[in-house]
Amino acid sequence: MGTLRRHGPIGAVCGLAAAAVLAAFLLLIAILLAEAWPVLDPGFLVDAPSRFADRAGVGPALAGTLWISFLTAAIAFPTGLGTAVYLEEYAPRTRMTGAIESTIANLAGVPAVVYGVVGLALFARGLGLGASILAGGCTLAALALPTVIVASRSAIRAVPKGLRIAAYGLGATRWQVIRHQILPAAAPGVLTGCCLALTRAMGEAAPLLVIGAAAFITFAPGAPGDPLTSLPTQVFAWTARSQEDFAALAAGACVALLLVLLAINLVALAVRHRLRGVKR
Amino acid sequence: MTVAELSGAGTASRALAERFAGRAFLACAIVATATAIAVVGVLGFETVLFFTEVSPARFFSEVAWTPFSEDPRFGVLPLLAATAQITVGAAVFAVLPGVMTAVYLQHYADARSARVVGTATSLLAGVPTVVYGYVALNFVTPALSNLWPEIEAFNGLSACLVVGLMILPTVVVLSRDALESVPASLMEAGLALGATRDRVVVRVLIPAASRGIVGSVVLAMARAAGETMIVTLAAGNQARLTWNPLEGLRTLTAFIAQSSLGDAPSGTLNYRAFFAVGAVLFVVTYVMYAVGRRLLSRRSRDGAR
After folding, report:
1. Which residue in the set A8, A83, A251 is minimally distant from B29, CB to CB?
2. Phi/psi of residue A132, each to 5°?
3. In angstroms, rounded to a whole number, what is the distance separating the alpha carbons of residues B118 and B85?
């Protein structure tokens, strides 16, 4: 009522909409936690999937997701940042460069499942990687690349012009300017973009399903050549089984996935805080 | 003599580092460009091969999609119609609450509620779609069956609702950006003229941001069109033309995800059908995304007109 008196009816209705969004979020979390509660114990995180719901866990899927995200980051981060630096600091301002830039930006909007189809043809079949962790990592790296590039470019562009001009004026070479001025100043923004791209890629089930992620892997993958499994595809496999016991497992895998994503975000937050602290 | 040479110590190694750095950045850009070309190239190549066996006219006019039957039919219309229905349906559920939340955050909320709702929105945006799919199948559909007992286990309505929830953060965040870029002086001028805050918001600020708000809706719909896991889990896998939201349907994305593609042998017509469907999806979402980005970009808003 306070809102109504202060702002009038439009403000109050808009406030209700915002409250509904908040409620939807809380409801989602509550549903997942309530469903997952029976299966959440330390063993759940290490045990393998099983025909018997009470013995099943997400061990291999968790290991798969960590492997895949490591590969995705290792491929997409340096390539994306390097491309952003090239486009901002080296590339001539031609029509060609502009076309490449806008194509890459629009590729960020292409659905993940399309990357799955391309990854199947290119990595799983073309390079003969099969339905492996490595094929999944490569596919998700291709998916994450446009987002990394777009975010890194805007972080680099936000670096004050004066910094660049002053450094060049003092006789620094291009690489010196990039290394000592631009990259440190752009680091927090680049990190945010990379974190967003990685967590989004890690939550994708569709491209991995298309490549051929297996629902029933009983050992944790230990090398990039091992069969593809991940938390999102495990959630899908258990949800699609539509039996009561497996629904709880699916909720448990959802919670595990959300916790992994949350952990990555928190680490990125801490690193960003340090970066800012060191800089200023 | 270059500046690097004049500066003396370590000249040779510095020049080497300079050249190496330049080459390395160029190499990254080439890899990224090659990836983009490969994505388009692979889709295009397999799609052209598909069209040598199934004519585009049949692909876009037949109304049956039964690739695995004895007399396979490749009419993409049922899939395309289902994608359009889910996209529009999700927008129906997402646009009004999304824009109103953005208006609240930008023009009404105090700092603390703005932070709480803003955090919830960005967390919602980070939830993987397969998690939404789980909720759609196990909670939303059972809840809907209390209202409509005749609802099918797989149905379009549940998918629309949950896809709407999934694209809600996109609408909120981007609409808020659009509202934010309206000069604050407009609000001050309106209030100074004696208009209420409600009136300034509805008559001045929302119209001024309308282009960006439309852009945010288009981008959100592009995401809905490409969404895969929610529709795969909740809307089912029957390719059919239906207007009944209580019945199941199959989108472009669900067909790709569901047909256990990992097993289809390369070079078969079925294998190529995935690429043809992928290409249709690519074109639809690419165009929507490009249009949305254009509507949102500040340059074209402040430019010519």
Report:
1. A83
2. -110, 165
3. 29
